[in-house]
Amino acid sequence: MGRFDNHIVLVTGGTGGQGSNHVRAFHAEGATVAIGDIAGERGEALAAELGERAFAVRLDVTDEQSWQAAIAETERRAGPLSILVNNAGVQNPAAPIEATDRATWERILQINLTGTFLGIKAAAPSLRRGGGGVVVNIASTSGVGGTAFYAPYVASKWAVRGLTKTAALELGRDNIRVNAIHPGVIATPFITEPAAGADAPIADFYSPEPYAVPRLGTPQDITGLLLFLASDEASFVTGSEFVADGGLLLGPALKHEAA
Questions:
Q1: 111: nearest Cα among 84, 133, 138
Q2: pLDDT at position 252, please?
Q3: Which portions of the chain are predicted below pLDDT 70?
Q4: Can you say whether the dihedral through the CA atoms of 39, 55, 19, 158 is positive or negative?
Q5: Domain regions of the chain by residue span
Q6: What is the enclosing helix (H) or strand (E) of 181?
Q7: What number of other Cβ atoms are within 10 A of residue 77's Cβ?
Q8: 3-state DSSP call for residue 53?
Q9: What is the DSSP letter of 86?
Q10: Which helix (H) or strand (E) holds 177?
């Protein structure tokens, strides 16, 4: 018996570094997983790898009709949704506010913020039809503190925090819980490869040496927390935020000999 037997899960950005790990973990725990991705071929490949109880849905998170179609396809193939993971997100090339063009600003907010809003809006009726469920929004530690040169990304993730809390208040009486995870610097291509239009990856600007846990995070670090929040073990948890950053936001840790 798996924790998510008979659960229907939709993961957006389901073929990325973190998203694919989330998909595999839910599937291993017994869930039927809809792999949401804007490039359907990658989702189809992952679904074929996993086999039974996995299928791809083409999903542009910025498009309301695409969301409606993805939810309808999920219900047609598996039934009402149990869990939505709003994982899809993009980073802007590093630039000061004065050098950030409006098109970049709007693109980042469209995907990271509007995409999350549209996901909650589209998924809520399906979650109700299934008797309730869970939404987990993947935000960022950049949504808890500022990060120079990443204004669009920071603004989008701060806004996801407020959206999470509002949705939790609106949907709680429908037996739908809504929470957010704020990952730190996680070793995925999102961090280790340059964003579109950037010259260097984000990892070049961060050293984990000062962290209390002196390493970069792994997708498994975030997935473990996600599975807890999506499970009945967290049935009393909603509207909450969970930071998983190895101590990045705490500031430099003392070395043992200096303690």
A1: 138
A2: 86
A3: 189-206, 256-259
A4: positive
A5: 8-243
A6: strand 176-183
A7: 12
A8: coil
A9: E
A10: strand 176-183
For residues 26 and 179, give the distance between their C-alpha atoms in angstroms, rounded to a whole number. Answer: 17
In sequence order, the 6+-apart residues with CB closer than 8 A to the CB of 249 are 141, 144, 145, 184, 243
Q: Which residues have CB under 8 Å from 13's CB, separation 6+? A: 19, 36, 37, 61, 87, 88, 89
Quote the DSSP letter at residue 15.
T
Length of the chain: 259
Residue 106 Cα to chain centre, angstroms: 19
Sheet holding 32-37, edge to edge: 54-58, 32-37, 8-11, 83-86, 133-138, 176-183, 241-244
As assigned by CATH, the class of the 8-243 domain is alpha beta
DSSP class of residue 255 equals P
The residues that are catalytic are 153
Q: Is 99 exposed, middle or buried (0-12, 13-18, 19+ CB in 10 A)?
A: exposed
Q: Give the pLDDT of residue 244.
A: 95
